[in-house]
């Protein structure tokens, strides 16, 4: 095993928080053409923490839905540090339903520490919005591919994580709660984040072994921030293979396989 694969979960967490790590706004122009962003959930408003719209992948129309991180404090304030409000998830569902209507595959990019847990978000139905996305994406009659770019934390990630195939960048993490949240809940001490990382089983290798994720997308030496063109090429190569493959499948077979994939996750002891 090479040095890159020997990184601990905490080392990967530090790497994906690197200030120069690419965000989805860096990837979209290099992976897709003719991206046209669409705004609003048609119920309350827009949410800059999730962007979505129509694009072309190898001249095939697709719908892109993505959680957005900022590169600096001003960008992060605008996108709420990639922590979506309910209107962000409802916008995502609106675009997914539109994709279903027009037979476009859906590509989701996950990169969030978790959904926003502020009072206003709760008042507008944060839990309901996430739960509805999970339920609706499970029966969405069009192919769905999700890719974890960096942090995949809590319900904020799960709301875009119901898919036919889940891929993770090599240093990405995916979990039911962020390591800091885990430490805060379990030990009442957020400073034990590093210890939490060591026991949570949240790396790409862990998730493939546990059959939560199917594919690991290789990052450039030292991390994605060291070669944006190469990591974009790797992501596009993966999507260019998987999207046509999923589109060829009978939709009822695809939905059955999607349901079965999630039903088989986990070990059960009687």
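Sequence proposed for the structure above (270 residues):
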């Amino acid at each position: 095993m090479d040095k890159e694969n020997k990184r601990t979960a905490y080392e990967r967490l530090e790497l994906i928080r690197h200030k120069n790590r690419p965000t989805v706004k860096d990837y979209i122009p290099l992976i897709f053409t003719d991206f046209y962003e669409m705004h609003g959930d048609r119920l309350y408003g827009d949410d800059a923490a999730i962007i979505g719209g129509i694009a072309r992948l190898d001249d095939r129309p697709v719908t892109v839905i993505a959680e957005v991180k900022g590169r600096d404090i001003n960008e992060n304030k605008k996108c709420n540090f990639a922590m979506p409000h309910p209107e962000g998830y409802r916008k995502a569902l609106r675009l997914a339903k539109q994709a279903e209507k027009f037979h476009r595959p859906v590509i989701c990019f996950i990169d969030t520490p978790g959904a926003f847990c502020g009072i206003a978000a709760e008042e507008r139905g944060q839990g309901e919005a996430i739960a509805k996305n999970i339920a609706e994406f499970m029966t969405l009659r069009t192919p769905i591919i999700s890719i974890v770019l960096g942090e995949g934390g809590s319900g904020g990630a799960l709301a875009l994580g119901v898919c036919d195939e889940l891929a993770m960048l090599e240093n990405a993490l995916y979990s039911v709660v962020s390591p800091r949240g885990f430490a805060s809940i379990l030990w009442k001490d957020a400073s034990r984040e590093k210890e939490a990382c060591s026991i949570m089983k949240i790396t790409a290798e862990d998730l493939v072994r546990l059959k939560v994720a199917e594919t690991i997308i290789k990052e450039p030496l030292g991390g994605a921030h060291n070669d944006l063109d190469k990591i974009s090429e790797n992501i596009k190569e993966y999507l260019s293979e998987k999207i046509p493959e999923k589109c060829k499948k009978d939709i009822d077979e695809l939905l059955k396989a999607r349901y079965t994939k999630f039903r088989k996750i986990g070990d059960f002891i009687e």
